[in-house]
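Ticket #4471: structure export looks truncated?
Reporter: QA, pipeline team
Priority: medium

Steps to reproduce: submit the single chain below to the structure queue and open the exported record.
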Amino acid sequence: MLDENELEVDDIIGAAAKRKKRINCGSKGKRTERGLVNDLNARFSKLLSEHSEWGMFSRSIGSGNRWGQKVVLSQAAKDTFSGDISVPTQFRFVLESKGGYNEIDLVSAFCGGSTMLDSFLKQVSDDSKRSGRLPMLLWKKDRKPRIAFLKTGTIPDETKYTYRMYYRDWTAFLFDDIIQLDDSFFFDMTAINKA
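Actual output as written to the record:
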């Protein structure tokens, strides 16, 4: 007969709860970027088909590590390779895409800010300076709608949107709201208007 003090029982429920599922951040980021590229190409398909010389939206390969390298690029290369998404030539924005980062808590914006969000906004601001385009950060938490951060004042006040949030000198909008704005908000149409 076994003494109950001699029994060993494994806590399999507690062990399973402690084990974290490994997340491949690189795959998640690429998946988020591909989704964004598909959405942008679909939204602007008519305009881009009429002006095929502008190119289309695509992922910028190696965007996360490019500016840490000591490289000297032409302005054309900076325009093309700034941001996570390569944009058509007449597109007015440089795009930085972030997927996941579920640990960012927007409540922290009221308590001194979010260091990670600040780093994303600095990254897109640096890309904006290099490329001469306006900055736009696009962030999508898991199973949540995509949020667009633009410098406050970029979108006219009379623009219709569901929600907005001010963070430092940025304004956050639902991407689904701003993507409905007129093509002229996103593209420099002077080349078209001169023709």
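Status: closed, not a bug. The export was complete when the record was re-opened. Leaving a note from the reviewer for reference: The chain has a mean pLDDT of 82.
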